Amino acid sequence: MTRQNAQKIVPAEIEAVVGKISQAMATLGVLPLPRNYALFYEALSGRNPELARELSALGSSPDAARIDELGIRHNLASHATLKADKVQAQAVKLLSELSGAMRETAGRKTAFIRQLQHFIERLQNDPVVGMTDFADDADVLRREAAAVLREDGAFCGRLSDTASQLSSMEADIDALRAAATRDPSTGLPNRTAFAARLSTLFLDASPRSQSALVVVSVSGLRSIGERYGVGALEKALKKLAPTFRKSIKKNDFVGRIGLDELAFLFCDVNASNAETIVERIRASIEALDIPLPERAFTPERLSLSAGISMSDTAQSETDLMNQAELALQAVKASGRPGQMVFSAIVGARAKRLYSPHAA
After folding, report:
1. Which of 53, 31, 42, 44 is nearest to 75 (CA)?
2. pLDDT averaged over every residue in the chain
3. Could you tell me the domains of the chain?
4. pTM of the predicted model over 0.70
């Protein structure tokens, strides 16, 4: 979200939900943790009726652990870390148990080998050993050998089961990683994922080609949330997502970074190429009909504004993001949709935010 947007009033619908969440959590004595706010938002905003019912069933003094269990069971992104910790603990326990079983089996085999060596030594050192003694020792060895084989078979079965469980846990971890870096409304990468991708751009001390960062604000999305509620906003985002996804090629990246903002990273492009891409995206967005409640025959039309910054004018990802946001602010200040590439002139208009490394 740009600094300009951060100063705007939160849409009335969302503000009402936030107030409802805070009041509900205070009444129930729930700790004001970010993950609890996210869970209560899912339940009270109408996005997850089943979660709302299960949360209500916990009573007037819900236990913190049971609230966390709800978040984990419903695969909320806010609880992905908790679930990852739980999966990791389960994996450690499985491996510890397997290690203990391995030691026991190895110990039994070692004992059997020693008994066998002792028997062989007796035969070598006492060729006239009595048949009774021989038969007794042989019977002991036979029983030990059978026990070792049984334990070895059981261990192999346990090893196979553990491998299957660990494979399932690996799938869970992949799902958790996706949940933690995916925007649930659009299916696109979220701000965390985009920041991670952007941070790799300056790892190479001498990048071979230019890249363009484009921060986009979708005009009209915020008002949809204010007038028609969160549900309508979610449907609009789902309608827009395929267009944004199709606008990138293999090495590019797009993520949702705010309520009505997205960020694109285009590789191997110059400023002119980036502007052409943005114009194409805007045309596609403006051609979409966004259905709204009680307005079946008069759908909403949206547009977008974009700020563009080029990697060769920045020394870090922070520089690059600041420059794109400043360019976006300049576009919004003009009062009409469009795009602007960051320049020293744009930076000079906002000296307080202007990076000293910018071109």
Report:
1. 42
2. 79
3. 3-74 (no CATH), 81-180 (1.20.58), 191-348 (3.30.70.270)
4. no
